[in-house]
């Protein structure tokens, strides 16, 4: 598993103003909203991190005592080891009051300056305020809510009577891949703490996830709505101790029909006055804002313009090409330019399958990512793509939304999407967090109509080009 993925931090643009020291958390001025912990029996003397779970009432069955030893103490380290010079227009992580264990992890990741959404969100959430953020993937939003959540858990003592299956922080995301990625980022940021991170997704072994839940306390739980409800309805997970709740990609959860499940989950958590709620979405539709009003109290609103992701960091091209010539154009672009990490998008699952099969037959290591691919294979495929064993990943829009892999140099739209928002999300797989990337779209006779709405959304004209003759050369017979 790769560590220290650059996407969670990115490069902070120069215009971002520094956050003043007064915006850091002060418990006397803005205490966290936490549920009162039950009183601990007098005869117990163990620390909260080592004590055994107490006996539950009938409606909350007792969980097994954790038999695993606590994580080893972090090596001697102090924030002074992490030297970052103040820079005009930039916000350092030093400008916030973060725990040394957390700063140590950030130092290991090597990103001293905040991205705009990190600087803005942390200025509110570290003081205990609810927040809603409009930002796409690649802007550093994952680190923004993880740093805030970890700080809350480190600064607030855990309940004295703890039970297995009672997370203190809950992060809900719509796709399996996104859950896995958030959990990996959380592991990177908590490695010098005693906080435990768990993830629940559908399509994976339920019993294996249950054993993990029963082996140790759960501090941060990242889950898809369906699998979390499975655990909750079976009495394995109880959400009455949740201090922080994060809803990521709320607009996507609406699109995928998950909101009824999310409502069921939220009803199991403490009232919104007793928890902190953070909601993130790529768009602020009326439906998203209505959900934010229901689930938050006086939230801070942070908006990062999507054009910064779609237009400024990605070089965009459109090739006018007949449908019958699209595959040879794709093959020649990859082989003649020796590209090593490419994402190809198509609109239909059968189209994705055919492209992947032809690339594989022609000697290019490729894999497909769609709703038809089993979860265990999806995870193996993503790992192979990250490690460079898979050269081309072919995906549908639904599958592609949850893919966050650094180093994708090119995104190719084999067919243009009918929804302009999907174009923005597609090309956002490259050019992440301020890095540069390239997108190439194939506009055939059947999908050229989709181009004008895309140009209207991103606010710029994309010049349509004829591909050079060498890129339309036949695929060599030796490869067939």
Describe this structure in words.
By secondary structure, this protein is of the alpha/beta class. It has 2 domains: about 5-25 and about 85-305, P-loop containing nucleotide triphosphate hydrolases (Rossmann fold), CATH 3.40.50.300; about 310-480, P-loop containing nucleotide triphosphate hydrolases (Rossmann fold). The protein is about 30% helix and about 15% strand. It contains 16 helices and 14 strands. The strands form 2 sheets. A 7-stranded parallel β-sheet has the order 3-4-2-5-6-1-7, with helices on both faces. The model is unreliable at about 1-10 and about 10-70 (pLDDT under 50).
Walk across the major sheet and give the strand order. 3-4-2-5-6-1-7
Percent helix among the residues? 25-40%
Average pLDDT reading: 80
Distance between the termini: 35 Å
Strand elements, count = 14
Short characterization:
By secondary structure, the chain is of the alpha/beta class.
Core attributes:
2 domains, 16 helices, 480 residues, 13% strand, Rossmann fold, disordered N terminus, alpha/beta, 14 strands, 7-stranded parallel beta sheet, globular
Task: Give the arrangement of secondary structure elements.
Blueprint: H1 100-109, H2 116-125, E1 131-134, H3 141-155, E2 169-172, H4 176-189, E3 197-200, H5 206-215, E4 220-223, H6 225-233, E5 244-247, H7 250-255, H8 259-267, E6 276-281, H9 286-295, E7 300-303, H10 307-310, E8 314-320, H11 326-337, E9 342-345, H12 349-361, E10 366-369, H13 375-386, E11 392-395, H14 397-400, E12 410-413, H15 420-427, E13 437-443, H16 451-458, E14 464-465
Parallel strand pairs: 1-6, 1-7, 2-4, 2-5, 3-4, 5-6, 8-13, 8-14, 9-11, 9-12, 10-11, 12-13
């Amino acid at each position: 598993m790769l560590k220290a993925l650059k996407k969670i931090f990115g490069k902070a643009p120069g215009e971002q103003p520094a956050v003043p020291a007064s915006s850091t958390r002060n418990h006397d001025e803005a205490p966290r909203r936490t549920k009162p912990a039950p009183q601990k029996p007098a005869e117990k003397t163990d620390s909260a991190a080592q004590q055994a779970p107490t006996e539950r009432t009938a409606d909350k069955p007792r969980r097994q005592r954790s038999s695993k030893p606590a994580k080893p103490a972090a090596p001697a380290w102090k924030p002074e080891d992490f030297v970052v010079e103040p820079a005009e227009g930039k916000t350092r992580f030093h400008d916030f009051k973060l725990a040394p264990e957390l700063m140590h992890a950030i130092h290991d990741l090597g990103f001293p300056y905040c991205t705009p959404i990190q600087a803005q969100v942390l200025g509110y959430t570290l003081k205990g305020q609810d927040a809603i953020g409009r930002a796409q993937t690649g802007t550093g939003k994952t680190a923004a809510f993880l740093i805030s959540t970890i700080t809350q858990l480190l600064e607030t003592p855990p309940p004295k009577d703890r039970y297995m299956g009672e997370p203190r922080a809950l992060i809900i995301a719509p796709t399996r891949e996104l859950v896995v990625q958030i959990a990996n980022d959380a592991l990177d940021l908590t490695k010098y703490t005693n906080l435990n991170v768990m993830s629940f997704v559908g399509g994976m072994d339920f019993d294996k996830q249950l054993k993990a839940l029963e082996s140790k306390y759960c501090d941060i739980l990242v889950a898809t709505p369906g699998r979390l409800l499975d655990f909750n309805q079976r009495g394995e997970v109880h959400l009455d101790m949740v201090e922080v709740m994060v809803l990521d990609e709320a607009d996507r959860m609406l699109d995928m029909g998950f909101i009824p499940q999310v409502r069921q989950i939220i009803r199991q958590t403490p009232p919104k006055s007793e928890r902190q709620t953070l909601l993130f979405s790529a768009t602020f539709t009326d439906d998203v804002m209505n959900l934010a009003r229901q689930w938050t109290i006086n939230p801070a609103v942070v908006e990062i313009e999507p054009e910064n992701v779609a237009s400024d960091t990605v070089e965009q091209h459109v090739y006018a090409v007949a449908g019958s010539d699209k595959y040879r154009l794709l093959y020649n672009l990859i082989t003649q330019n020796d590209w090593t990490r490419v994402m190809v998008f198509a609109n239909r699952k059968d189209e994705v399958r055919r492209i992947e099969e032809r690339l594989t037959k022609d000697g290019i290591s490729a894999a497909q990512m769609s709703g038809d691919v089993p979860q265990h294979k999806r995870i193996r495929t993503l790992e192979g793509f990250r490690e460079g064993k898979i050269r081309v990943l072919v995906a549908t829009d639904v599958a592609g939304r949850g893919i966050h892999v650094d180093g994708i140099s090119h995104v190719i739209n084999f067919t243009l999407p009918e929804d302009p928002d999907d174009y923005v999300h597609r090309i956002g797989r490259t050019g992440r967090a301020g890095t540069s990337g390239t997108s190439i779209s194939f506009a055939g006779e059947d999908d050229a109509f989709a181009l004008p709405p895309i140009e209207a959304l991103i606010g710029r004209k994309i010049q349509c080009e004829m591909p050079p003759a060498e890129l339309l050369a036949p695929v060599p017979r030796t490869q067939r």
